[in-house]
Design a protein that fits this description.
97 residues, 3-stranded antiparallel sheet, 4 helices, 35% helix
Length: 97
C-alpha cells in the first residue's frame, strides 16, 4: 500500500518506509480504505457507501451494532466479522487517535 506522501513511520500499527507499507490486519486495512489518500495495491473492494448515517455504538453495544457501524465506516463485513465486539470498539474509539 502507498501513503499519500513518502512518509516513513507508523500509522495504525503499520510501518511505512518512503510511503510504502504492508499489512493484512483487517482493522488497519479498513482504516486505510476510509482515508482516500492511501492506495491499497490489488484492492478491488472499495469502501462501502453508507446507506445513511450510522451513529457510533456504545462500547457495550451488541456486536451486530458494531458490525453495522464498521461497515458504514468502510470496513468490509468479512473483515469486521473477523474481529470481536471489543476489538471493533477499541479500533473505532482508540485506533484512529
Amino acid at each position: 500500500m502507498s501513503a499519500p506522501t513518502p512518509y516513513t513511520g507508523t500509522v495504525v500499527g503499520v510501518e511505512f518506509v518512503d510511503g510504502t507499507g504492508e499489512t493484512s490486519d483487517p482493522a488497519a486495512l479498513a482504516y486505510f480504505r476510509r482515508h482516500d489518500a492511501y492506495s491499497i495495491d490489488g484492492d478491488e473492494q472499495p469502501a462501502a457507501p453508507a446507506s445513511g448515517p450510522v451513529e457510533m455504538p456504545k462500547p457495550s453495544a451488541r456486536k451486530s451494532d458494531w458490525l453495522d457501524y464498521a461497515v458504514s465506516q468502510g470496513m468490509s463485513r468479512d473483515d469486521a466479522e473477523s474481529l470481536t465486539r471489543d476489538d471493533l470498539a477499541r479500533f473505532f474509539t482508540d485506533g484512529e487517535g
